[in-house]
């Protein structure tokens, strides 16, 4: 489910990015089309890659609030609890500094691009701050999320990456995600519609 831009969410976009943030949030909902690669992992057989040296992963809204109190320049991905009712943030730190955030969505949440069944989760809202890119934070944080999901008896995980986001397409593959197809998200006058086309991995944008 994609939540409408009610006043509370508009205020959050304004407080984070000013009037430009509101414009950037509203404009695509008038008329737009965007495609994402859907990736999946079987958590029963997945083997996490070797841990990334120097990266610390923390989770929880309390930890996120601490980060937000000390940083006023964080992008919208650090506020998905306010704009999308997300509940489970995971934060990646390098040399003690915040560098990355990703969110875990379960069937009780409202993922954007997929309807989750029992035993399924989605990783979404990933963002690596510019000064921390190239240090393996995305993979480290995703592995921490997936390990927690497996401990909680979830069996399958998904994530979605914009087809033109080359760095993230490579990053999620390092985690162990396998491409499953392409999701197209269309907005028309505030109404979203998603379609999914399954494709062999070799045909999915890389």
Please describe what this structure looks like:
This protein has 206 residues and is α+β, with helices and mostly antiparallel strands. It has a single domain, classed as Aminopeptidase (3-Layer(aba) Sandwich). Helices cover 31% and strands 33% of the residues. It has five helices and eight strands. It has helices at residues 7-30, 61-70, 80-83, 137-151, 166-175, and strands spanning 31-42, 55-59, 88-94, 97-105, 120-128, 156-162, 178-188, 191-198. Strands 2-3-4-5-6-1-7-8 form an eight-stranded mixed β-sheet, sandwiched between helices. The model has no long low-confidence stretch (mean pLDDT 89).
Task: Using brief descriptors, characterize the structure shown.
single chain, 206 residues, alpha+beta, Aminopeptidase
Total count of helical runs of at least 4 residues: 5
- Please indicate the count of domains: 1
Separation of the first and last Cα atoms: 27 Å
Biggest β-sheet strands, sense, barrel = 8 strands, mixed
Low-confidence stretches: none
Q: Approximately what portion of the residues adopt beta-strand conformation?
A: 25-35%
Chain-averaged pLDDT? 89
Succession of helices and strands: HEEHHEEEHEHEE
Give me the CATH superfamily: Gcn5-related N-acetyltransferase (GNAT)
- Shape designation: globular
CATH fold node name: Aminopeptidase
Percent range for helical residues?
25-40%
């Amino acid at each position: 489910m994609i939540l409408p831009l009610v006043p509370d969410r508009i205020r959050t976009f304004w407080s984070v990015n000013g009037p430009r943030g509101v414009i950037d949030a509203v404009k695509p909902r008038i008329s737009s089309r965007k495609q994402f690669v859907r990736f999946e992992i079987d958590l029963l057989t997945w083997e996490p890659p070797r841990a990334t040296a120097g990266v610390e992963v923390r989770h929880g809204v309390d930890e996120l609030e601490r980060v937000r109190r000390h940083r006023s320049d964080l992008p919208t991905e650090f506020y998905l609890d306010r704009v999308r009712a997300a509940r489970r943030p995971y934060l990646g730190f390098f040399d003690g500094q915040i560098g990355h955030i990703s969110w875990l969505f379960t069937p009780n949440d409202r993922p954007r691009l997929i309807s989750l069944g029992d035993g399924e989760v989605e990783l979404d809202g990933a963002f690596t701050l510019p000064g921390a890119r190239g240090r393996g934070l995305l993979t480290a944080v995703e592995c921490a999320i997936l390990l927690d999901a497996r401990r909680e008896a979830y069996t399958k995980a998904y994530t979605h990456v914009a087809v033109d986001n080359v760095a993230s397409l490579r990053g999620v593959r390092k985690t162990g995600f396998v491409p499953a197809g392409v999701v197209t998200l269309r907005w028309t006058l505030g109404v979203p519609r998603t379609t999914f086309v399954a494709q062999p991995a070799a045909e999915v944008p890389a």
